[in-house]
Amino acid sequence: MPERAYPLLLVALVTLTHAPALDSGFHYDDRHSLLDNPHIRDLGQIPRFFYDPTAFSADPAYAMYRPLVLTAHAVNFALAGYAPLGYQLLNLAIHCLATLAVYLLLLCWPLAPIAALAGALPFGLHPVQTEAVNYISSRSESLAALFYLLSLYSYLRQQQTLSLLSFGAALLCKATAITLPAALVVHSWLFGDRSLKRLWAYGLVALAYIALYTGLSAPGAGIERAAEVRPPLSQVATQAKALVHYVQLVAMPVDLNIQQQFFVSASPLAPVPLLCLLAVGSLAVCARRPSTSSYALFFFVLALAPTLFIPLHILVNDHRPYLALFGLALALGAACQRLRSTHIVLLCLLLASLSLQRGQIWRSELGLWHDAARRAPLMPEAHYNHGYALHRVADLDGALAAYKRAIALEPDYARAHSNLGAIYQQRQQLYQAVGAYRAALAREPDAVETLNNLGLCYAGLGQTDQALEFYQRALTLDANQAEVWLNLGLLLRDRGESQAAAQALERALQLDPSIAERFPAPGK
To answer: What is the pLDDT of residues 318-333, one digit of tens each?
Structure first.
């Protein structure tokens, strides 16, 4: 095959591997950042994405500064609404472009075209990458990686302006791209270019981004909020284990899971975190001699380094090593001359087979979370989401069991208590529903939806004073809830308080005119 056909072969093989799982629907965080997010439904909102982090989600509590990711979401919506295939096709296109960027980078190293192909193919076919293709919200990882790789490529080609622009674009996709200046410094150190004249501009871009990010973040959303998630020493201990976990996941990608079974460690001096830190430190010793393999090791660690310092609620996930896999591609490309072509072919066939298998699990939300609960039986979040998936397909017995399992593992899991109450309420087991909702409320006293549901349960039990109390508490927290105004109005109407009922129902109509269709007859 002529060398000029290698890029086409690369794209074709990556597409054939990942395409069978496309059109698998929306998952997990896609609901708050896409389906319920009104900001992406209007292209006129795009300028706002660049100065308002709360536009990232329907819930301001999930604010993130990723304006280019939101822009991609908005373009998707403008083209095809909420048809999931369009979103996943764009994810696949981004992944194909990132794989091509890896190929071009390896040519710049310089490696022979066949060696570049041998390195880029595992990057594109690796099953770890299936999450970035099938999980729409994880396009932040692949899009940031694409611009990061383009910046590194432009740097090696002496195209600094394009490199700096690409670096800025990567940061506007995800903050983890901040490691690029360090990757360039390591490259200069290992390969003899000790001049830092070309690198100061990258430091300025990084500092400008940090200033912008800090300025746009809400008060208390920076270091203070991070410290609330996990203390610094616990964070380092936990993510030291995570680095080793990612090495294992890349080397043996047979235990992929949207909810990995992974736990917090309290101290870096505990046996397991300490051993992991020593293992990571040994990489620096192994890679002290200038070589392509040394840079590959350094790059893998650098790409994952932000997780050591930025506490996240999700301890590990499969898409985080996305960019780090360039290190694997570089190492395989450099080793290509020492490996037989049959070895590379067998490796690619194995990776493609595992990716096809993993892709099929993404085809169904229920299958995805069933697999998660099976592989991570000690993770309450896996059981909760499995229960939610069962709940959505009306398997109430299965959902009830899954929610109870989540609560057994995490008694303070407010959402699990609340959803348990919803099942009891649906079955008209109102006393059990009240108990579950009250358990949820004890853990999240300001949950408006739970307060509203408690009001409905007490109204159903004929305890109208109690129902009135919970509706009023809900409206004190959020006076713009049409649903609560409707329920309050109907309760007041049935209590014979006509004037107050009319005012409440009028307010509900003002907030949501379509709610008139749900007005039942008196006493119903």
So the answer is: 999 999 999 999 999 9
